[in-house]
Specification:
This protein is α+β, with helices and mostly antiparallel strands. β9 and β10 form a beta hairpin. α1 packs across α3. It is 32% helix and 25% strand. It is built from eleven helices and 18 strands. The chain has two domains: 139 residues, 3-Layer(bba) Sandwich (D-tyrosyl-trna(Tyr) Deacylase, Chain: A); 227 residues, 2-Layer Sandwich (BirA Bifunctional Protein, domain 2).
Length: 465
């Protein structure tokens, strides 16, 4: 969704003629709103109509934030002027050296920075990736309705009509704003209500505790510095910033394996011959082992559409980390995993019971996640990366559990043979954990080192473990 926000002294809209074969029903021929009005011109895009309620609420939040930005602007200027006066006072008294700064002045009178009403106006010209679904016309009325429920007087302009309008933009510092709103359907509750535990080889469970400074409280039974570093990474706990570059970055450069690519987006690397050879050896080894395990090889495209609901259901959970690719009048996202196209591939197959377990393996040479700038770290956190992916389709839950155990053994063997150390992470629901904890604890006991457990109240993603 794209939103253009204009703060205006009143607005008049006249309905002229139908612009589509199915215009929105709207009895009034004219909309006239007096006072200081915030007009929200809205373009509803292809992915937005997956969930009208969610995208409408996101639109409401953007409008509310704009109202706060407008109404709070004079106070922000007042505070900045207080700081400027204090700075100038210190210069005059000789406490600091420098040039006096000028006080800031509002363009308009202070009482002009308010919003009396809101008009939500469908405006197709902000995007070329518009939704073609009939539900798109419900977004503006829904936004207006929610705003009214929240005590903000609002109306909407009808969709599917040629209209003329008169607008008088106030022209102050925050009178014009633009917002790009990405559909975000991931519920927050699973994070807020999640329980984090440490499981030990002795089959004990310890809920993770933090000290007053926000650091993880150590557990007497676990004396493994690397494990605690792993926990901090998974939980996003603050680490002491030493200002030192991760040691592996020096190694990857000195051995001429891989390096940063200044001609690409940060987090996309260049590989030299030695690095390519190592990468290909790993690929060949894993492929041979997994084929011996009984998997079949597949390959799916690196980009896919956002116009299929079953794809949007998953991809709209990570809008801030998406790379977009335009092709004509359509847009696609660069995959952050091959899961969804593999699932779509399977959904079009005719499968017999004897085919299960059906194991699909894909060496995803290119996957993309636009991690935040501060999160990037050499080979540890990238925006463009390789992901070997194995998905298995089983007859039922019992056979899935047995397959899970077999694949744990496979993963353990692969890691050991490549000389890599790792830790187990289990993410599941509280109910599934209660019913299946014994065999999971068996794996941890066999692993011989602690594991990390994240428990949710409800299943919020396509997997349950």
């Amino acid at each position: 969704m794209k939103i253009l926000l204009i703060h205006t002294d009143g607005i008049e809209v006249s309905k002229n003629k139908e612009a589509t074969s199915n215009p929105q029903e709207f009895e009034e021929t004219e909309i006239k709103m007096d006072g200081l009005v915030l007009v929200a011109f809205v373009s509803v895009e292809d992915q937005d109509t997956y969930d009208i309620d969610v995208i409408s609420k996101q639109g409401v939040e953007v409008i509310e934030q704009a109202i706060l930005q407008i109404t709070g602007f004079p106070e922000n200027i007042r505070k900045q002027n207080e700081e400027i006066r204090e700075y100038n006072r210190k210069i005059e008294s000789g406490e600091i050296k420098g040039k006096p700064r000028k006080l800031k002045e509002l363009i308009l009178d202070r009482n002009q920075y308010r919003v009396d009403k809101v008009l939500v106006y469908p405006w197709a010209h902000l995007s070329k990736f518009l939704s073609d679904k009939p539900d798109a016309m419900k977004v503006c009325p829904t936004i207006a309705s929610i705003l009214n429920e929240r005590g903000i007087e609002s109306q909407f302009s009808p969709f599917g009509w040629y209209k003329s309008f008169k607008i008088n933009c106030l022209g102050h510092e925050v009178a014009e704003m633009y917002r790009d709103v990405k559909l975000y359907i991931q519920p927050e509750e699973h994070i807020e209500n999640a329980i984090f535990k440490i499981l030990t080889p002795s089959r004990k469970e310890f809920e993770i505790q933090y000290d007053k400074e926000g650091f993880i409280e150590p557990i007497s039974e676990i004396d493994d510095e690397v494990f605690y570093l792993f926990l901090k990474s998974e939980l996003g706990v603050k680490r002491e910033d030493t200002g030192e570059e991760p040691s592996h970055i020096k190694v990857m450069k000195e051995f001429e394996l891989v390096d940063f690519e200044p001609n690409s987006d940060a987090g996309n690397l260049r590989w030299y011959t030695k690095g390519v050879v190592l990468k290909n050896l790993i690929k060949r080894y894993m492929e041979e082992e997994i084929i011996d395990f009984g998997a079949v090889l597949v390959d799916t495209p690196i980009m896919y559409t956002v116009k299929k609901d079953k794809l949007t259901a998953q991809t709209a959970r990570f809008p801030a980390r998406t790379y977009w690719v335009e092709s004509g009048n359509d847009r696609y996202l660069l995959r952050f995993a091959g899961d969804f196209l593999q699932f779509d591939m399977i959904s079009n197959m005719n499968l017999r019971p004897q085919y299960f377990p059906l194991r699909l393996y894909e060496w995803e040479q290119y996957d993309f996640r636009r991690e935040q700038e501060g999160e990037l770290s050499g080979l540890r956190r990238l925006r463009g990366f390789i992901m070997p992916d194995l998905h298995t389709f089983c007859r039922d839950l019992d056979s899935s559990v047995e397959e899970f155990k077999k694949q744990y053994q496979l993963s353990r063997s692969l890691m050991d043979n490549m000389g890599l150390r790792s830790f187990l992470i289990f993410r599941t629901t509280q109910d599934f954990w209660a019913e299946n904890k014994e065999w999971i604890l068996d794996l941890i006991e066999e692993e011989g080192q602690p594991a990390f457990l994240e428990l949710w109240e409800d299943r919020y993603y396509y997997f349950i473990l």
